Amino acid sequence: MSFLDELLEGGSTYRVKATEGGAVFQPISDRDDDLDAFQDIVGQIEDNEGDGYEVFLTHPLSTHGRNLIDRIVITID
User: Fold this and answer.
1) 3-class DSSP state for residue 51?
2) pLDDT in tens, 19-31
3) Nearest alpha carbon to residue 48 among 19, 14, 7, 13
4) Rounded CA Rg of the chain
5) Residue 66 · residue 19 · CB < 8 Å
6) Which is nearest to 51 in space by CA: 1, 4, 10?
7) Helices marked H in the chain — which ranges?
8) Which residues of 13-33 are buried (b: 16+ CB within 10 A; e: fewer)?
9) How many angstroms separate the CA atoms of 19 and 73, rounded?
10) Is 3 exposed, middle or buried (0-12, 13-18, 19+ CB in 10 A)?
11) Residues 6+ positions from 39 with CB-CB distance below 8 Å
């Protein structure tokens, strides 16, 4: 199973919503622990870009001031 296939199944630290031609990933909740845990999947998504998908958008969370990402959107090749 490819990284993209596993990613699209969702995980314990994030939720995924399929879109027309892509997907949106967000942390499982707005709690600080969940936002912190989500940063790991953000890094994995960015590191594996080009393996069947491209990162379209990363959305930084403006209320925490620590450059946390609270949404990442990909387009699937």
Assistant:
1) coil
2) 999 999 999 998 9
3) 7
4) 12
5) no
6) 4
7) 3-8, 32-47
8) bbebeeeeebbbbbbbeeeee
9) 9
10) middle
11) 68, 69
Q: The pTM is what?
A: 0.91
User: With 90 as the cut, is the pLDDT of residue 61 above it?
Assistant: no
Cα separation, 44 vs 8, in Å, equals: 13
H runs (alpha helix) in 28-77: 32-47
Q: What is the pLDDT of residues 63-77, one digit of tens each?
A: 656 789 999 999 999
Q: Given this model, what pLDDT does residue 10 score?
A: 93
Residue labelled with tokens 């209320």? 63
What is the token pair recorded at 7? 């990613």
